[in-house]
Each structure stands twice: as structure tokens, then as C-alpha cells.
Amino acid sequence: MTLLVTGGAGFIGSNFVLDWFKASDEPIVNLDALTYAGNLANLASLQGDARHHFVKGDIGDRELVDSLLATHRPRAILHFAAESHVDRSIHGPAAFMKTNVEGTFTLLEATRAYWVAMTGEAKSVFRFHHVSTDEVYGSLKPDAPAFTEAHPYEPNSPYSASKAASDHLVRAWHHTYGLPVVTTNCSNNYGPYHFPEKLIPLMIVNALAGKPLPIYGDGQQVRDWLFVSDHCSAIRAVLAGGRLGETYNIGGWNEKTNHEIVHRVCALLDELSPSAAGPYTRLITHVTDRPGHDRRYAIDARKIERELGWRPAETFETGIRKTVHWYLDHADWVADVQSGAYRAWVDKQYG
User: Fold this and answer.
1) Is the pTM of this model over 0.90?
2) Of all helices (H) and strands (E), which one includes residue 247?
3) Which option is the CATH number for 3-350: 3.40.50.720, 3.90.79.10, 1.10.10.10, 3.40.50.10860?
4) CB 3.0–4.6 Å: which of 261, 266, 302, 347 could bond 280 by disulfide?
């Protein structure tokens, strides 16, 4: 019994791999292209672990994917691999179309060929789990109900449009070909190994360096925040018991404005690593809002609780404290991903 995980060196993917081996000895084949946010340092604790087989490669490489499926015969595929930063998608949308749309298409076609050739129990238990985002649903008004799984898709950025397209492909491959799929749409994740371009790690890293803490516009954009280990437990629950063809929204029940997030991070840093120059809020600066910035996301996660009994274990207060502690304790990891040393190591290691 084996899992194939795509994007398993990224933020959420690597957390899932590490979390999986805390409770299971079932092997994982980890396929990741190691683009800028893929980082094998996230998985350093698994070096020499026979349960973890890492492969540097692209989900768009059909020959490679076919070979991995034929060799390792996974019982499930967990598809995390994606370009995932809205700001980067605005400046360079082509990479998002290539990975999130074309890459998912190639992976689905390889999976379909593999699944069709399966027989007996192996075929009946096989699953393709597609990991997606709440951003596909668009923006909510302040008093609107939270996103349910029936909410219409209204993506507003190149990133969210590319993920919406991949969701539609997964749905179509189920309804047209019978491929046994499940899809999860999560809210904003945070926690260990988060690449420091995203809001929470950026605020932590910049504050410690005495750099400005940039907040887009008025800072009143609202997101639902989900601690990454809770996301991992939800994915395990859906993989084990989710109904085929269904979508499950995963959220933390933590709606916060960007302004609230930054002020809470500053308060924790004032407590845990105070600056001689004064409170970290002195570094906050408001910058021009990004184009098409969605105002509010909110997840209604009652379906996954009702059907699978899942609820997040962390509150925002417990999760953000753990996150700030992690970054304070892992300054070397931050320095490596910022300095380019990690990229140089990948180039040397993999040519």
C-alpha cells in the first residue's frame, strides 16, 4: 500500500507528509518539481527513511507520471502540486496555467489510464484527492453567508481562475469517465514551513529584521484562517471516508481581517522576542492595494463535520502562537530560503 503525493515539498504538502508518518508506516512517493516554494529542507527529518521516496519531477511529465504509477502502484493520489500565490499570478499568469491547468489535466489522464487497467479490490478502493482553495468562490460581501460546497464559482485572480479550472477538470473526469475523485477546498492555511512571501510569515520575518510590515489598502480584507495541521487531519478524514465525486470545504472558523492578523503577530513578537526599538507595530505601513483584491472569504465547514466528524483542533490563538514560536526557533530555515542557498543546493543536487 502506497500513496502518491504531488507537491509534497511545498508548504501544505510537506506538512501532510510529515503528519502522515506520525500515524502511519504506509509509504509515500513524493513528486515535486522543487520550484521556488518547494523545499526539501521541510522534509529533512525524513532523510534516510525508507517510507519516503522523493522524486524531483513535474506533474506535466506524462512519461514520468506513468512510470511512477506503474512502479509503485499507489492506492491513492493526493494532488497538492500547484502554483499558489495571487501576487505572483498577477505578474506572471503563464506558470499558473501550465501547472494548475495543464499539469492537472496530464495527471488526470495518467491516473485514468492507470485506474482503468486496475482490477478487483485495488480498483474499487482507489482515490484521486484534489486539494484546492476557497478562492475559486470569489469574494463575499461583509454580511453574506460563508461559502458552502454549492456556492457558484466566481474566481477573480489568475491564480483562483487556474484552480477553478482544475476543479472543473477533476469533476468532469469523475462524471465522464467515472474516475473516483474527491475534492477539498480549504481556507487560508498558516503554520510551519510557510514560504515567507505569504502574509503571516512575511510579517514575522520582516518584523524580526526591522523591515516595514506592508498591509494592502485599508487592511480590512477578511480571510478564514486554518492551521495547517488541521488541514492535514481533514484531508486524512476525506481520503478515508469522503463520498466519491463530492467536494468538502475545510475551514478553521476563524474570520480575521489582515489588520487583525498583523497586529496579533506584532503583539506575540513583542512578548516572545521584543525589539529594543519599541513595539513592532511601529513598522506597519499601508501600501497600494493589489488589483482585484477579494474583500472577504469565509468557509462553511459543516458538511465535513456532519459527514466525517471533522472539526479543527486549533483555535486561531493557539495556532498563531505555535506559528510564531516555530519561526523564532527556525531562523536557519528562513535564512536559507531567503538567501538563495537552497536554490543553489537544488541546482547542484539535481542539475
Assistant:
1) yes
2) strand 247-250
3) 3.40.50.720
4) 266
